Amino acid sequence: MAAGSCVFVGVKGRLQRRWASAIAAVVQMNDAGISVPRAHGARLRSRRMAQQAFPSVSGVPAEQLGAMLLGLYPLAAEPERLGAGALLDWLARHIAFDGAWFGRSLFESGTLRPQGGHTRGLAPDFVNDWCRVRHIDPVVPAAMAQPGHGVALAAHELPPVASMRAFAADHGIGQALSVIVPAPGSPWWMHLSLYSREAAGLGARAQALVELLMPHLVLVQGLGLHEAPMPAPAALTLLSRREAEVARLFAQGQSYKMVARTLGSSPATVRHHLRQVYAKLGVTSKVQMARLVGAQAA
Questions:
Q1: 41 and 90 both lie in a single domain
Q2: What is the pLDDT of residues 92-141, one digit of tens each?
Q3: Domain that holds residue 258
């Protein structure tokens, strides 16, 4: 740890404490399976025991993974670089791909609605083109059914739908590898998709790394946003005028009866509007809703 600790020099102490707990166990492991601390002070002293304690590390040497993370977490202290797509630049040094998309979305109408992110090696109109076929993209439901698990699909395995096949051909996609996870404490779904021109360009190692690194990418992105908050998405634009009024009042802390009295509606009508708000914003509680609309309602 002595050599790795110099990476932290000059980085904010608050960030350092949060990364240290996230990577300490991995850094202590090496490819020979040296001892790793467990929850109650027991030690793991063999490769087999280490792999049982960290099954997701299988196939990727833990020493290599630890070195990657030591290079990743300092990016959280550089929000300007994060805003310029630094995570994908960092990822490209460890996984060979032709294109990538890392971003966040809301879940609505059975699929994802992109709400921001970065691309690398893709055409400027890629995201807009994908939005036109998102409802028939088979990768989305497959990845959401197993959050955190990589889903790989070759272009020839796409459903025989002309628009979906044309999208892949237009953007030179031979294979896609995607992983989707819910962002902790928010209604967002974070997604990472890597693209290869070859039908088998992204193999087992790429899938293992994507699955291992995705939680850390989300954490680093969140830490960076905490240091330099980005403007809230225009959540209210997704709502009707009455739904937006209901959302604003609940975000201000009003109860059902108070909202109904303010709007001259019945509590049952307010509940109906609230259900619509939840569905459109992809949230499940008034707390999540308030986080989205609170800044805009002020």
A1: no
A2: 999 999 999 998 888 776 778 888 788 999 998 898 899 889 889 999 88
A3: 235-297
